[in-house]
């Protein structure tokens, strides 16, 4: 008896169709980096119906190539010849974001699909604006290099009214790159800024059914349901405490269940007392500290038996965004952090 993450194929397919309805005229790049945001690459086949897939490591390209023939975009690109050779063999499109990548690319005779990343204000990856034109014309001299798209990334798209969004959009739209496809929008921009859709959109978190914004979005369906069994049920007396540090004390006699999941499985250690846990379709409250293997929950008067299954997140009534906000983090971190001792299974 231990924790299970069940990945809903119909939810993934539905969320991909939501992307399509937001951006009907754009091609879709399914962002499946970080092992498909923690959902496991081999369990997200519906996302492979997109036009392209994107990952952040050559390792992930290798795994993904066993599952699909679609083009794969390697987000950091490559920095040495060995990786370049392998990437080409795997039919990988490469992001070019830094001039240090130029020598390796230029020395190759093989056909290469490049996506040029330009920095419009996030200042993480991407060529500075003033290097773009010269780099494009240098690369164009090589007949084996095909420049597929010019792309950039928003810093603040999850805050739709942030001034930085229009600044980055204006900078990108004014670039002299009309001859290339363009790509700008992540999930938040797909949902809030139509004009940023351009030729390719790059949804990540929304594919997995979590909102990129601080509010919950009912049209997205949670793809990962994380559950764990109830291992014990006991009644404790008023004044008794629960868990490490004795941080929670019962105000009245209380029925407490202990559930077989903890931070060793990726349930957040910082989840506060009061974080909802769903048991037999009812939301109950976490009490005391999260341990490595266990959490404790106050079930009130609820009818519960040892062996019943608790849902930690991934129900329409208990979304990972809620657990993230009770834990001082974001859904992305919780989803990517489910550990390898959890069993991953596919569900309809
Ligand atoms: C991860 C990533 C995305 C997707 O972001 P979401 O907020 O999950 O939609 C888009 N573009 C790039 C370059 C990324 O690295």
What would you note in describing this structure?
By secondary structure, the chain is an alpha/beta fold. Helices cover 24% and strands 26% of the residues. It has ten helices and 19 strands. The protein has helices at residues 9-22, 33-37, 58-65, 81-89, 102-107, 129-140, 163-174, 187-192, 320-326, 331-336; strands at 4-8, 27-31, 52-55, 72-74, 92-96, 112-119, 127-128, 145-151, 181-183, 200-201, 224-236, 241-242, 248-249, 254-259, 276-279, 282-287, 295-298, 309-313, 343-347. Strands 2, 3, 4, 5, 6, 7, 8, 9 and 10 form a nine-stranded parallel β-sheet that branches. The chain has a six-stranded antiparallel β-barrel with strand order 11-14-17-16-15-18. Strand 12 and strand 13 (248-249) form a beta hairpin. It is elongated, with a radius of gyration of 23 Å. The two termini are 22 Å apart. It binds pyridoxal-5'-phosphate. Residues 31, 33, 75, 153, 186-188, 202-205, 212 line the site of pyridoxal-5'-phosphate. Pyridoxal-5'-phosphate (PLP) is lined by residues 31, 33, 75, 153, 186-188, 202-205, 212.
Would you summarize the structure shown here?
The chain is of the alpha/beta class. 24% of the residues lie in helices and 26% in strands. The model has no long low-confidence stretch (mean pLDDT 97).
């Amino acid at each position: 008896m231990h924790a299970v993450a069940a990945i809903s194929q119909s939810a993934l397919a539905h969320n991909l169709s939501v992307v399509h309805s937001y951006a009907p005229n754009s091609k879709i790049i399914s962002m499946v980096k970080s092992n498909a945001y923690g959902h496991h690459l081999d369990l997200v086949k519906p996302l492979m119906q997109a036009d392209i897939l994107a990952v952040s490591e050559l390792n992930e390209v290798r795994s993904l190539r066993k599952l699909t023939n679609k083009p794969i975009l390697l987000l950091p690109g490559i920095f040495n010849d060995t990786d370049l050779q392998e990437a080409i063999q795997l039919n990988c499109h490469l992001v070019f974001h830094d001039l240090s990548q130029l020598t390796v690319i230029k020395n190759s005779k093989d056909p290469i699909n490049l996506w040029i990343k330009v920095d419009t204000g996030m200042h993480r990856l991407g060529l500075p604006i003033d290097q773009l034109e010269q780099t494009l014309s240098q690369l164009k001299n090589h007949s084996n290099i095909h420049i597929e798209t010019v792309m950039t990334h928003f810093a603040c798209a999850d805050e739709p009214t942030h001034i930085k969004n229009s600044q980055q959009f204006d900078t990108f739209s004014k670039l002299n790159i009309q001859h290339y496809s363009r790509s700008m929008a992540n999930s938040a921009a797909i949902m809030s800024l139509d004009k940023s859709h351009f030729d390719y959109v790059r949804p990540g978190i929304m594919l997995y059914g979590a909102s990129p914004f601080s509010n919950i979005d009912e049209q997205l369906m949670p793809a990962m349901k994380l559950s764990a069994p109830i291992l014990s049920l006991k009644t404790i007396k008023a004044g008794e405490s629960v868990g490490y540090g004795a941080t929670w004390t019962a105000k009245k006699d209380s029925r407490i269940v202990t559930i077989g999941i903890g931070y060793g499985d990726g349930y957040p250690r910082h989840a506060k007392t009061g974080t909802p846990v769903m048991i037999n379709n009812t939301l109950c409250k976490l009490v005391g500290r999260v341990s490595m293997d266990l959490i404790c929950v106050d079930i009130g008067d609820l009818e519960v038996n040892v062996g019943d299954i608790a849902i930690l997140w991934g129900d329409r009534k208990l979304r990972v965004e809620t657990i993230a906000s009770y834990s001082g983090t974001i859904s992305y971190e919780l989803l990517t952090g489910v550990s390898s001792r959890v069993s991953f299974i596919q569900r309809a």
